[in-house]
UniProtKB/TrEMBL annotation:
Pfam families: DUF1996
Domain DUF1996 residues, every copy: 37-288
InterPro entries: DUF1996
Entry keyword Signal: yes
Species: Chaetomium thermophilum (strain DSM 1495 / CBS 144.50 / IMI 039719) (Thermochaetoides thermophila)
Alphabetized UniProt keyword annotations: Signal
Signal peptide (from-to): 1-20
Protein name: DUF1996 domain-containing protein
Amino acid sequence: MQQWTSLLAAIGLLTNGVGAQNMLRFACSQLVVDRVDPLVNPGMRYTPHLHQIVGGNSFNLTMTPVEYDLAKRSTCTSCSFVQDKSNYWTAVMFFRAKNGSYHRVPQVGNGGPQGKLINNGGLAIYYIPSGRTTAFAPGFRMLAGNAAETDDNKVNRGNICHRCWTSTNEDNFVGGAPCTGSDTVAIPQDTRCKMIRQTIIFPHCWDGRNLDSPDHKSHVAYGQGSGATGGGPCPSSHPVKLPQLMYEIMWNVTNFADRSIWPDSGPAFVYSMNLGGSAAHGDYLFGWEGNVLQRAMDNGCNLNRDCPAAGLTYQPPEKYNACTIKQQAPEPVDGWLKAMPMGEPALQA
């Protein structure tokens, strides 16, 4: 846990302290792996690239802001807080083999300040407050990163990064706080990596008016500083400080360590856009019940524990792991594929 000292100090995570500033950190299992994207490509089946989606089971092809109330429409959530029916998704990582076939890289649970988080695929979600924090409003949505970006130098490493994990145990932490030290924008391409940790940190400043924008970005902004700190002061154009939302994904690359199956040229690990780490991105649709998230921020609710002051209830892994939905763009996504799922439905190799 010493490696987490800088992160814990930065966000004031003093679990036993009085008036300490805490954070929510919880597991979300895979709801579905699907080629749909109601934020960027509403109504489209077989969107340009594949996503892994977690959260409320009302996830659909089209989810009109405000009108489509995730909290009311969902009957379960694949996240460990019962009251969180939000949807969170990212691109999928693939291994590209020497023979031209592709294999989806599986995700595993995340270690961290409270030890292992149990999730069936999926990711870990953080809501990190800093000072006076205003929770997201119903209908709020946003996008972090650019799925078409090819230049690592145009990506802030303090907000989107990757880390080579040389241990097969995700609880055996490597390095310091997320997006610091030797972390890179690029996906590590090294057979010594047993895991690759991906971190996506969203903007934490809001214009206070718009729940979305045409590019799903302009209504929000990054404030001063970077990294998992809860966020610094906000610009005058976006004066409302939100909880800092962070995704953390552990890609288990252990089964792809045999160099003989790696391609002779080009990267072995790519995202489902057939691009590298510069194109990493995350999508978010707010779906918390009532004012639970605001109360959680106001009352210093911590990690993935029950928080009666906010009406926040933890559910065990057997509950959230059981919350899944069928693909709406059905195609094989596991095993060896002739090509990544792009364009026409994918075929097994």
